[in-house]
UniProtKB/TrEMBL annotation:
Organism: Steccherinum ochraceum
Disulfide bridge partners, by residue number: 29-42, 41-309, 61-142, 273-338
All residue ranges annotated as the Plant heme peroxidase family profile domain in the record: 69-313
Listed name of the protein: Peroxidase
Gene that specifies this protein: VPL1_2
Enzyme Commission number: 1.11.1.-
Length: 362
């Protein structure tokens, strides 16, 4: 009797799912190939193909993908509650690139802007929409990443963003948290600041130390994993070839860049426990990063006026790779700052100890 009831219940659920799918009407796109739940999203299929082939080299999680994700943040965070919330995720860093890419915090963004501008010109899409779309597609190319939501319909920017609104790696934790709290109508909490720095799991630095361009922030810059949150909590060394520039902290691995701001946030009482919580927690890593990128992408906009085109963003490859201590390092090398919660138990990679290579194309 119980099995019969279960079968009936499953049959009802299946019928409801089919019915719900039938109620979700899709439209045929003009290309005759794709369909979408909203016709306004159809042109994005052409943009997607262009971006993947001509910006991301066929869909790689490489230098251009990293820089496109960086551009999402640099464009969006340039908004201030104290200054009236003008700006935000509007593409001003592309439209007013001769001004904004020369801001100190934005140095190095000129290269990705120049690569994106011809693609924008080939399509009927605003710069604000394109920056966010390209960033979401960039993330999708990284194994282990979430599918980032994307909303379409941002108008062109009315002016350049003010200088001084993008946090820098030599800023104090107090200054960084205050800047985030002032970004947008409600700002960002210290916990959300940590969420935003999940981006550093697929990132590298070029100009913090110009002598070592393309230095990744963790040992797996092509994979969306929690290795960044392990390695930033390890004791560091100033390796030969590094200059110890302002904004650069000692790193546990040769070839790896550790930003001073990442080092400090990993050890600050307001952020340390959230930082540690991402170690070996891929579900939380994906979900919280998706949440904070959506919030960034809507800065300066009313979500109700935009069109949800998230379905156009590719679904990333799923991976299941546990975090580890780099070869030669153990729990004894952790500088744990989260009081009351034990550091996760991790295996150590087999030796020998090797250096982390720079990101290709840097």
């Amino acid at each position: 009797m119980a099995f019969r009831s279960l079968a009936v219940a499953l049959s009802v659920i299946g019928s409801l799912q089919v019915a719900n799918a039938a109620l979700t009407k899709r439209v045929q796109c003009p290309d005759g190939i794709h369909t979408a739940t909203n016709a306004a999203c159809c042109p994005l299929f052409d943009v997607l193909e262009d971006v993947q082939q001509n910006l991301f080299d066929g869909g790689e999680c490489g230098e251009e993908a990293h820089e496109s994700l960086r551009l999402v943040f640099h464009d969006a965070i340039s908004i201030s509650n104290a200054a009236g919330n003008v700006g935000g995720a509007d593409g001003s860093i592309v439209v007013f690139d001769t001004i904004e890419t020369n801001y100190h915090a934005n140095l190095g963004t000129d290269e990705i802007v120049q690569k994106q501008k011809p693609i924008i010109a080939r399509h009927n899409i605003s710069a604000g929409d394109f920056v966010q779309f390209a960033g979401a597609v960039a993330v999708s190319n990284c194994p282990g990443a979430p599918q980032i939501p994307f909303f379409l319909g941002r108008p062109p920017p009315v002016s350049q963003a003010p200088d001084g609104l993008v946090p820098e790696p030599f800023d104090s934790v107090d200054k960084i948290l205050a800047r985030f709290a002032d970004a947008g109508p409600v700002g960002f909490t210290p916990v959300e600041v940590v969420w935003s720095l999940v981006s550093h799991t697929v990132a590298a630095a070029d100009l913090v130390d110009p002598t070592i361009p393309g230095s990744p922030f963790d040992s797996t810059p092509g994979t969306f994993d929690s290795q960044f949150f392990v390695e930033t909590q390890l004791k560091g060394t100033l390796f030969p070839g590094t200059s110890g520039n302002q904004g650069e902290a000692e790193s546990p691995l040769a070839g790896e860049m550790r930003l001073q701001s990442d080092h400090d946030l990993a050890r600050d009482s307001r952020t340390a426990c959230e930082w540690q919580s991402f170690v070996n927690n891929p579900t939380k890593l994906r979900n919280r990063f998706s949440d904070v990128v959506l919030k960034l992408s809507l800065l300066g906009h009313d979500q109700s006026t935009l069109t949800d085109c998230s379905e156009i963003i590719p679904v990333p490859q799923t991976i299941n790779v546990p975090a580890t201590f780099p070869a030669g390092l153990t729990i004894a090398d952790v500088e744990q700052a989260c009081v009351g919660t034990a550091f996760p138990s991790l295996a150590t990679d087999p030796g020998p100890v090797t250096s982390v290579p720079p990101v290709a194309g840097s």
